[in-house]
Amino acid sequence: MIDVVATFIFFFAVIDPIGTIPVFIAVTRHLDERARRKVALRASLASAAILVFFVVAGELILTAIRIPLSAFQIAGGIVLFLFALSMIFGEAKPEKEVKLANGGRDTAIFPLAVPSIASPGAMLAAVLLTENDRYNLWQQAQTTITMLAVLVVVLVCMLLASRLHRVVGESGASIISRVMGMILASVATASVLGGIKDYFGI
């Protein structure tokens, strides 16, 4: 059995459902309620397909090009750490992705599905948390189900976006995004240390 709560929190941090709300509102600001529901569903399905692909094929691709998973874990941890720093000190996720949405490319795929929901951090997490040498098939299935549960939360947040945005607001979404950035920074550090330990057999 995996630690479902820890895995859920990890995916919640990298996917950031609350931070997706302002992006969704910006993307669908000219649409009626029915069209908004379609965009939310399409974005959720596209994100799920992308992340499940990384669960299934991510490690196979690394093996095919002869990159040890420990090296990917170190590199992924560094990238995730930089991503976390950008959330903490730079523009928060809602701020920078709303700008993308306002840039004219207002589709369910970009910037909503990628990079808002299926973020680089989420793709890395999908690979690292389903490593074949560490997790059996049942544990990988549990991780995938947990990841999909977070995507269901994302879908619910998008469907209730207008109401939630009135409660949370732009500032609230920004604060939550920065708190998630702190969690990600800690996870990224642990990933780098674990990768170094595995690579050198310490």
Helix content: over 70%
The separation of the N and C termini measures 26 Å
State the domain count. 1
Q: Given the helix and strand composition, which structural class is it? A: mainly alpha
Relevant terms:
single chain, mainly alpha, cell membrane, Growth Hormone, Chain: A, globular, 202 residues
How is this structure best described in words?
The chain is an all-alpha fold. It has a single domain (4-200), classed as Growth Hormone, Chain: A. 81% of the residues lie in helices and 0% in strands. It is built from nine helices and no strands. It has helices spanning 4-15, 17-27, 33-64, 69-89, 93-101, 112-117, 120-128, 137-159, 161-200. The model has no long low-confidence stretch (mean pLDDT 84).
SSE diagram, text form:
Layout: H1 4-15, H2 17-27, H3 33-64, H4 69-89, H5 93-101, H6 112-117, H7 120-128, H8 137-159, H9 161-200
Helix pairs in contact: 1-7, 1-8, 1-9, 2-5, 2-8, 2-9, 3-7, 3-8, 4-7, 4-9
Task: Describe, in short, the structure shown.
With 202 residues, the chain is mainly α.
